Amino acid sequence: MKLRAGQQLVSAVDTTKLIVVRAPGEEVTVTCAGVAMHDPAASAPEGAAADPAQQDGSALGKRYADEALGIELLCTKAGTGTLAVNGAPLALQGAKALPASD
Description:
This protein has 102 residues and is mostly beta strands. The protein has no helices and nine strands. It has a five-stranded antiparallel sheet, with no helix packed on it. The protein has a four-stranded antiparallel sheet with strand order 4-3-7-8, with no helix packed on it.
């Protein structure tokens, strides 16, 4: 799927919702619990089942990114599935240090 900044993605197997903050230039497959995420306007794939081995969960308000791919996703609704891009789990992005006020 070709992503664009601002695009929303929802999970077919749990309550996870994401917004694309930074989109890569190439097509990627974003999954939650091993099942491809989809546009909320589209219907969810039928018969999708979560992979029990991919249940690390996602956290509300946290950003997930892969710097090598150039993708950054913001979690707007938490879920139980592990977020991944092209089969590789996404890392939780840490807080950025504030600039010194000196």
